[in-house]
Amino acid sequence: MSTDPKQEWDALLAANRTAEALAVLEQQARTGNAPACFRLAGLYLIGAVVPRDLPLAREFLRRAVRIGHVDAALLDVALTANGTGGPASWPTARALLDQAARSDPVAAAQRNLLAEMDLTVDGRPVRRRLSMALAKTPRILRFERLFTPAECAHVARTATDLLEPAMIVDPVTGRDAVNPIRTSDAAVIGPAREDLVIRALNHRIAAISGTETDQGEALTVLRYRPGQQYRQHLDTIGQTRNQRVLTVIVYLNDGFTGGETVFAKAGLTIRPRAGDAILFANTTANGMPDPTAQHAGLPVAQGAKWIATRWIRARAFDPWIGPEAA
User: Are the beta carbons of 229 and 261 closer than 8 angstroms?
Assistant: First the structure.
């Protein structure tokens, strides 16, 4: 066995010798090893080889921060803002970000982007956004320039290293599955990646939809390259007690050809424009899936189309359990 503690615990975890790996990690954490504290925080956060324990994850995370672990500091900012493993506090998260920004250029860039936003003391937008009605059945609204170019770029950068072939929620089983109707690449910006810029944008999406931020699923970024598309579909999910009642799509770029969003039953074709958002209802007044809300993303002909989608539930949604378990 290697004498390098990190290599030792990695080897033990790879061999499914979880108890031994945890013992090594905990011993190293007691001696003030920041990577060990950070690794323990991650294990308890995702619940991969140990039961998920969000408060315990935060405890190990704070230990790593106190020792000076940069990545732990940024993760602590995100979890403080969205209330993972403890009470949510935007002011505390902002203070933590300001502290991290003194020595970390990534934190400084996030702080600078937040400074350009007009926010309340709890990170919500100050001003009300005006909308343009595109259709009544289903109700479709367009919000021009909901995101700035810098905000669009930040969302795309945050998602880039997470991109993988897109999944859909199977309408029968409610589970994630590969399906040929969607041929894009996708990235889910979950709570651990929800930095304060992303959190503020999720607050903005909640504001235009008239919902609470915790009703939204994690922001999902989709990239469509030439030939990729999303065929006609509904965003609602079968066998769920907490339906997707609204969808918000933000177009992160333009300059590509094809890729229009089409609501065939409403006779509506929407050409993407960077920063614009559309909001539409997925259900009828009685909460049932609305067949007129079927829509498609046409194939991209040239370039790449990037969008950010947030599916909004009827009630609060736990982003740690995944859409299939809601």
Answer: no
Instruction: For residues 192 and 317, state if they share a domain.
Output: yes
Residue 16, C-beta contacts closer than 8 angstroms, at least 6 positions apart: none
Residue 9 backbone phi and psi in degrees, to 5? -70, -30
Count of structural domains within the chain: 2
Same domain, 95 and 217: no
User: Are residues 235 and 321 both part of a single domain?
Assistant: yes
For 239-273, the pLDDT digits (tens) are 899 999 999 999 999 999 999 999 999 999 999 99
CA–CA gap between residue 213 and residue 158 (Å, rounded): 20
| For the chain, counts of helices (H) and of strands (E) | 9, 16
On whether both 13 and 51 belong to a single domain, the answer is yes
**Nearest residue to 22 (alpha-carbon basis) of 1, 44, 2:** 44
CB 38 within 8 A of CB 30: no
pTM beyond 0.70: the answer is: yes
pLDDT over threshold 60, residue 176: no
Do 24 and 108 fall within a single domain?
A: yes
